[in-house]
TrEMBL record:
<feature type="domain" description="Creatinase N-terminal">
    <location>
        <begin position="33"/>
        <end position="128"/>
    </location>
</feature>
<protein>
    <submittedName>
        <fullName>Creatinase_N domain-containing protein</fullName>
    </submittedName>
</protein>
<dbReference type="InterPro" id="IPR050422">
    <property type="entry name" value="X-Pro_aminopeptidase_P"/>
</dbReference>
<dbReference type="Pfam" id="PF01321">
    <property type="entry name" value="Creatinase_N"/>
</dbReference>
<dbReference type="InterPro" id="IPR029149">
    <property type="entry name" value="Creatin/AminoP/Spt16_N"/>
</dbReference>
<dbReference type="InterPro" id="IPR000587">
    <property type="entry name" value="Creatinase_N"/>
</dbReference>
Length: 131
């Protein structure tokens, strides 16, 4: 279900504004083109506290399996079949549901390869990824 039909939400727009914020540009050596957000916390906990549930805060989606990718023009959330209906109901305006683990589904990595220009800056919080 595509909820992006010209509808935006303030939270998403404020988040995107950070892509070109002076402090970010200075530290990233330029504006950010995309941001990756997994549905994890800094401790890789199975159950994420509401305080640390960044995907839910930004997207509205409360399922345990999610991966968000935000660009200046698109905001996408990947989840598997257990959560398709829930995501369609919960996703805030401006988000597009990307179905994971189905035939012909595109992964976040493949989406970036196909849609971002060479040299694009992709940001993420390293504390949310296993080392």
């Amino acid at each position: 279900m595509d909820l992006t039909d010209g509808v935006t939400n303030r939270k998403l727009e404020e988040f995107r504004a950070l892509f070109t914020h002076d402090d970010i540009v200075k530290n990233a050596c330029g504006a950010i083109d995309a941001y990756l957000l997994p549905s994890t916390d800094a401790h890789q906990s199975e159950y994420i506290s509401r305080r640390d549930f960044r995907v839910r805060f930004l997207t509205g989606f409360s399922g345990s399996n999610a991966f968000a990718l935000i660009t200046l023009k698109e905001a996408m959330l990947w989840t598997d079949g257990r959560y398709f209906i829930q995501a369609q109901i919960e996703l805030e305006p401006g988000w597009k549901l990307m179905k994971d683990c189905v035939l012909d589904a595109i992964s976040p990595t493949d989406w970036m390869i196909r849609n971002l220009s060479k040299g694009s800056r992709v940001a993420f919080d390293p504390q949310l990824y296993r080392h």
